[in-house]
Amino acid sequence: MDIDEPSPVTAPDAAPSREESATVETIRPGVEGLSLAPGTPPPSNGRTRSAQSSPDSKKTRSQRGLRGTRKSAAADTPSPSKARLGPKRQCALLISFCGSGYSGMQIQKDAKTIEGALFNALVKVGSVSEDNSDDPAKVNIQRAARTDAGVHAARNLVSIKAIMELPGVTDLVGLLNKHLPEEIHVWDIVRTQNSFNARTSCDSRKYTYFMPTYMLLPPAPASLTANALLDVEEGPYDVAKHPFWKSVANQPITPESTLFMLRKKWRIDDETVSRFRAVLQEYIGTHNFWNFTIGREFKEAAAHRHMKSIEVRLSFLLVYID
Description:
Blueprint: H1 18-35, H2 61-64, H3 73-76, E1 88-97, H4 114-125, E2 142-143, E3 153-163, H5 172-178, E4 184-191, E5 207-210, H6 224-229, H7 243-248, H8 259-265, H9 270-280, E6 285-288, E7 304-307, E8 310-313, E9 318-321
Antiparallel strand pairs: 1-3, 1-4, 2-3, 5-9, 6-7, 8-9
Helix pairs in contact: 4-5
């Protein structure tokens, strides 16, 4: 029948009969084989041992790591210790340089620059660590003013994160100058605030231009510029009437008296100097110099510059723009 009948209740103190014990021993191996998972050791004395936890089971997830991300034995091998270096400090270097033979101030790839020579010297003396020697951006090198190729600087400021305290070095400035080319000289190096940036902290720049006076001569007659001056709406200007061009109009040109040599002998007059000064005064104040920018929009504030003063001196003919 399919009806479950209650099994007879056995008294707790009742001992099993000999026939019942023999039956249990006969079926025990089969029951244990069905109830235990493969590879599980048989219970001892009727008791089941709890599985022992492995050492990894007590580790956190971050300690165990994710599957497939365990480091190799080679990666776990400790690297040889390096010489302990001092901390990097934000500092400023006051420098001067002669830009002849250099492609400007700012570091450029595959070009000889002032900053490149200065950075290499800092690496050689140990102020820039070996780990940072492959990329100047790691030490945030900045300059107060960029210069074009061949331009010199009497004073320029460079900010950089550098190691200022070197073992056995008492004169860091002197050591730097020993590793710099003779065209570049460091005058001083001082500690600054961490936020100091030579470029953004600079509030003004002063430029000095040296020029020969013959650069203010009008263009040669019959040249494209001279012909354009004849069509100026404000009033045509005939360069052939200028005293210099009148004096050389019928003069023979010889190897001893070339046009260039004649220009060098010319001396500027007071009237031309006055007109030159008057023209430069038009640039004082804030003006848009968008034509001299790259990648800027015409209405951007970065395209504007403010001229504080422009001075012309005739010791040679110096133009000071501040």
